[in-house]
Write a structure and sequence with these properties.
alpha/beta; five-stranded parallel beta sheet
């Protein structure tokens, strides 16, 4: 089956790129031919409109962050796009939204939406595109796999809710990445959904080790911190843990200026070789679990607390979540039963894999 995948732009998001890589790998293993829609076209016109809106917001007292110049964004994207170019098959051309013409060009028989926060309206506008509004009148399978709202709150406007409810009911199958997503689907979209693993967890540690086999294993005893939203309190907290564990801290922020050496592979190798990890990221949490590295997760409600709490609950690791940065002594010293975690992971992986496979049987 020829399958299109609709997900967040594959630009500067380590986890977002790897979840798409994992989904394509799994689909290929099933015998399908996957392509990912290459979203993220960003022009000078877009930048100008966003900048003007941001200036107006600041004038009336609303906080707003100015966006990068398109040329600078493209230069930064190139570093992680090397992995995309090598490992991910894209449907051209790059676009803001797929079109029926593009679907017909590739003869897609199914489109999968997911994973990542594809159903969070603050990250996707218009949100209706993530419910496949552009497929109206086309004969194909519509599937959501591990789609995420990011939060347990309903963030849609009344109009968005109405539009997306109609579109969701046209899907052949819907699965979500968080347990709270099951409830949101039922309550607001009037559809049933199944709770499944993120695509990254459908692959094994060995699969990821093959990607980084050329990177020598580090002999340094270090603590790795992957932080989406850096601040002084988090940095101080990380430094304290590193000092108590006698580890050298290596801190990487999601918004840092990327260098040529900041590859996807290097990022994965940091997880592989760390002695301890601190993160406030969903996919940071995923790779701690996959690589069996002791860790703690700093609660990050802004980015979507439900998604992290949900995955920790799946593995009975809720005690790894830090809501107050003075909880160190209670959490960081408690051991993790990795045999139990790995056994649960195998069971959930089989269930999620089989569900995806069964949803892709041609009619």
């Amino acid at each position: 089956m020829i399958i299109g995948i609709l997900t967040q732009p594959l630009s500067r998001n380590y986890g977002g790129i790897l979840q798409n890589y994992a989904l394509q790998q799994v689909l290929r293993e099933m015998g399908h031919e996957p392509y990912t829609f290459d979203l993220g076209l960003y022009t000078w016109k877009d930048w100008l409109i966003i900048t003007i809106k941001c200036i107006i917001k600041k004038i009336i007292g609303i906080s707003c962050t100015f966006q990068e110049y398109p040329s600078r964004r493209r230069n930064q994207e190139k570093i992680l796009r090397k992995f995309v170019t090598k490992h991910i098959t894209l449907a051209s051309p790059r676009c803001k939204k797929p079109t029926p013409k593009q679907i017909l060009k590739y003869k897609f028989q199914a489109i999968i939406v997911g994973s990542d926060q594809v159903w969070r309206p603050k990250y996707n506008y218009p949100i209706e595109k993530m419910f496949l509004d552009f497929t109206h009148g086309l004969e194909l399978k519509r599937i959501a796999y591990a789609a995420s709202f990011g939060t347990s709150d309903w963030e849609y406007t009344e109009k968005q809710t109405e539009n997306c409810r109609v579109l969701a009911q046209k899907f052949d199958a819907i699965s979500v990445r968080e347990d709270s997503g099951v409830e949101l689907c039922e309550k607001y979209l009037n559809v049933s959904a199944t709770h499944v693993l993120d695509p990254t967890m459908l692959l094994t540690k060995d699969d990821y080790n093959k990607l980084i086999a050329d990177i020598p294993i580090s002999t340094e005893n270090y603590l790795f911190a992957y932080i989406l939203d850096e601040n002084e309190n988090k940095t101080s907290f990380i430094t304290k843990i590193a000092r108590e564990k006698r580890l050298t801290p290596i801190i990487i922020g999601a918004d840092k200026e990327l260098k040529d050496s900041d590859s996807i592979e290097k990022w994965l190798a940091y997880f592989r070789d760390a002695k301890f990890i601190v993160t406030d990221s969903f996919h940071g949490t995923v790779f701690c679990i996959l690589f069996n590295i002791p860790f703690v997760v700093i609660s990050n409600e802004t980015r979507g607390g439900a998604r992290i709490l949900s995955i920790l609950k799946m593995f009975s690791l809720e005690n790894r979540l830090i809501k107050k940065l003075d909880d160190l002594n209670k959490i960081s010293s408690s051991p993790i039963n990795w045999d139990f975690v790995n056994n649960i992971n195998e069971q959930l992986k089989e269930k999620s894999y089989n569900l995806l496979k069964s949803n892709l049987i041609p009619q």
